[in-house]
Amino acid sequence: MSAAALSPNETERLALLRELDLLDTPAEPVFDRVVCLASRLMQVPMAAFSLVDSERQWFKSRVGIEASETSRADAFCAHTILQDEPLVVPDAQQDPRFAHNPLVTGAPDIRFYAGVPVRSSNGLALGALCAIDVVPRQLDAEQRAVLVDLAAIIMREVQYRERLAAARSRLRHSDAVLDASEARFRAMFEIASVGIALTTPEGRWVSVNRALCELLGYTADELEGRGFADVTHPDDRDEDAVLTGRLARGEIDFLRRQKRYLRKDGSPVWVEVDVKRKRDAAGRHEYDVAVIKDIHAQTLAEEELARLHADLERRVEARTRELGEREEELRSVIDNANDAYISLDRNGRVTAWNRQAEQTFGWSAKEALGKPLEALIIPAELSSAHRGGMQLYLRTGTSRILDRRVELPALRRDGSRLTVEVRIRRHEVRGEPVFSAFLHDVTLRKQRDAQREYESRHDVLTGLQNRRALMEALPLAQARASRSKGRLGLLFIDLDGFKAVNDQLGHDGGDALLRAIAARLRQAVRRTDSVFRLAGDEFTVLLGDMTDGLGDAHRVGRKLVEAVSAPVELCGVTVRVGASIGIAVQTPGHAPTPEELIKEADHWMYEAKKAGRGCVLPLPPAL
User: Fold this and answer.
1) Are 115 and 109 in contact (CB under 8 A)?
2) Residue 350 burial (C-beta neighbours within 10 Å; 0-12, 13-18, 19+)
3) At how many degrees (to 10) do helices 467-484 and 594-611 cross?
4) Which tens digits make up the pLDDT trace of 476-499?
5) Burial class (CB in 10 A: 0-12, 13-18, 19+), 154
6) How confident is the model at residue 377 (pLDDT cuts 50, 70, 90)?
7) What DSSP designation does 234 have?
8) Segment (H or E) for 56
9) Residue 278 contacts by C-beta under 8 Å, 6 or more apart in sequence?
10) What's the rounded Cα separation, in Å, for the pair 492 and 291?
11) Mean residue pLDDT across the chain
């Protein structure tokens, strides 16, 4: 085995890796979702996003891999980061670089590896997204493109954090002396995700932030001097003119509407615009503060927006022109933010609570101000951890959630629970620590994700797992059996006489029969075994931890035949069906592919059909 050489920019690469604060950090959904997708789309039992440190390879996210890190000398990914193109190893035992690698000769028994380097903005390879299998295989062009695309998602997130790290570094070296209101203003802008503009009473933009520039595709110089009408979709201009006219005449002091802007390239984008009038001490209309939120993806494809939310989010890093106006501008932005905003003092007591916080948690700002956060929204089981975490941070400066995006359970005033995505930032006001947090309710999104995840792997009619679930579970079960040198069995079941019942009772009766048969199959196997409905009247049963192999599988098959053959009462009629079952067994030293195992069981099922109803084939040697 030959260890990978060091990168020519190794010192710079390691320095950036540590500055990004990714090593030895908790799992994050933005990476976990991509790694899970890699495992599923590549149909491999193992996948990971690894970071290559000086002496080790550490897994930021992993699927099917027990270890959290390995030696860099043994790491396949240490070779990947030296390449411009993906590294593909069809059979590690045949590759002189890896044939004697302990990860190949022992657990996790790597045979196939494909990895794509994950690079920083200036091209430094920090780690890799990899797909791993315990059997040799080839990587076709489509699979290669999928792996490259998934790695690009991770790379965008890493480069986004790189920009945040650079921004934090610039702020640390800033020589501006800010009063308390500016400190709060800066903290809010750093973690906000909306565009902001200051406009004249006539609606002309005099100051715009980077998020708005990115939304519309213009530079700040190109936008300044323009106005709402210049970038508004033609179909929305008339209504826009009416509302902005009312604002200019003083008939209203605030407006909110959803409309379409036109980007520089001419493409439309849906936005939600909040405009707040600012008056001077004499009551004259001085300027307006506009908060612009991108709702294009939400309007056209809410599901896609949710999946890519973390990748598309941008924090605003801008300041307004005059320090004296920042307190009012901050209040306007916070009050109209779409996320709940909460500020805490060093004792964990609430010092700010915006309108969205009132709507999300049910407590008014008057009720919340001055109270400890655990008395408002933190579940009882987490109160001790919350207080301990704040005390630990004040003593040591160490925190597991500060400056990170985490999902946590929370409580509403009525006692109902919700899940919130939390981003917390620490800053100082007059030498005292203040904690600012944005909280976004993700309860419905998580419920929808869980329901979609369940429905994608379960048969709607019977509630059994479906073919997709089988194709995901079977390789993992085979890999476990191979590692433990155990036996695994697959039963392929086809009902005898189902068509006659379906013709007699109609599709509703046939569906009722399939549900009854599915329930019997579940009851007849062990809790550790799995039942799947493939299609129509075809089922499979996955058996693990067998001692006798074919003998055990045959006994289970006979038990299932008896269960299926018992009479069923449907629509006042007693009906009977039978079952023909084919068996395929994986034994130690024999490693068929999932497709080969299914094909073998399917073959023996047809042989059982030919041999007569109620047969289970092949027979054990003793029979």
Assistant:
1) no
2) buried
3) 110
4) 999 999 998 999 999 999 999 999
5) buried
6) confident
7) G
8) strand 56-63
9) 285, 286, 287, 288, 289, 325, 328, 329, 332
10) 60
11) 85
Tokens representing 233 are 């979709």
Helices (H), 250-284: none
Q: Reduced to 3 states, what is the DSSP secondary structure of residue 427?
A: strand
Only one residue has tokens 């290669």, namely: 144
- Give mean pLDDT, residues 105-124: 94
Q: How far apart are CA 241 and CA 260, in angstroms?
A: 14
Non-local (6+) Cβ contacts of 346 within 8 A are: 390, 394, 432, 433, 434
- The set of residues, in sequence order, having a beta carbon less than 8 Å from that of 4 and lying 6+ positions away, is 72, 75, 78, 79, 81, 82
Contacts of 453 (CB under 8 A, 6+ apart): none
**Beta strand 432-441 with 56-63: parallel, antiparallel or unpaired?**
unpaired
Radius of gyration over alpha carbons of the chain, in Å? Answer: 31
CB atoms within 10 A of CB 96: 8
Band of the pLDDT at 176, cuts 50, 70, 90?
Answer: very low
Q: What is the pTM of this model?
A: 0.40
The pair of three-digit structure tokens given for residue 179, joined into one six-digit string: 């009063």
| Tokens (6 digits) for 490 | 């697959």
Rounded CA-CA distance 540/552 in Å is 16
User: 521: helix, coil or strand?
Assistant: helix
Helix, strand, coil shares of the chain, percent, nearest 5, are 40, 25, 30
- From 50, 62, 63, 103, select the one nearest 475 (Cα to Cα): 63
Q: Which residue has the tokens 């920090």?
A: 126
Reduce the DSSP state of residue 100 to 3 states and report it: coil
Which neighbouring-strand residues pair with 398?
Answer: none
d(C-alpha 11, C-alpha 165), whole Å? 18
| Long-range CB contact pairs, 615-621, < 8 A, 24+ | 615/580, 615/581, 616/554, 616/557, 616/558, 616/561, 616/580, 616/581, 616/583, 617/581, 617/582, 617/583, 618/550, 618/583, 619/554, 620/548, 620/550, 620/551, 620/554, 621/550
Q: Cα–Cα distance between 343 and 438 in angstroms, integer?
A: 9
